[in-house]
Amino acid sequence: MPKTASITKTNHPHIVRSPEICNGSPVVKGTRTRVIDIVIEYTMLGRDPNEIIEAHPYLDLSSVHDVLSYYYERQQEIDNEIQERIRYIEELKKKYPNKVNEKLELLR
Fold first, then answer.
1. In the list 14, 21, 24, 32, which could disulfide-bond 66, CB 3.0-4.6 Å?
2. Non-local CB neighbours of 42 within 8 Å, separated by 6+ positions
3. 81 pLDDT more than 90
4. CA–CA distance, 31 with 47 (Å, rounded to integer)
5. Least reliable range by pLDDT among 35-44, 61-70, 85-94
6. 3-class secondary-structure state, position 1
7. Residues 3-15: what's their mean pLDDT?
8. Where along the chain do its domains lie?
9. 78: which residues sit within 8 A by CB, 6+ positions away?
10. Which architecture does CATH list for 1-73?
């Protein structure tokens, strides 16, 4: 019998959390798209909501705006998590410079 995920609703209709989905990171309901990934696209890559839904056609404008609302309510917490991830990547680059740089080149 398949295990069902225990979904925790938030005060945002498009955002849910579950320990079985993306390690409990908040995601857009019905997807595995993490809030933090949409926030990075918006804040660091400069994509507007319409560009985000072009990149993720399974999302709609209301879900993207809900993600941004969720982000602004928790901006410091999410910004801190982004900075922690950036620091971790920088540590990996120092520890394994060739491997990390090779992977980054593949992404470009």
1. 14
2. 48, 49, 52, 68, 71
3. yes
4. 20
5. 85-94
6. coil
7. 81
8. 1-73, 75-108
9. 35, 36, 39, 71
10. Orthogonal Bundle (1.10)
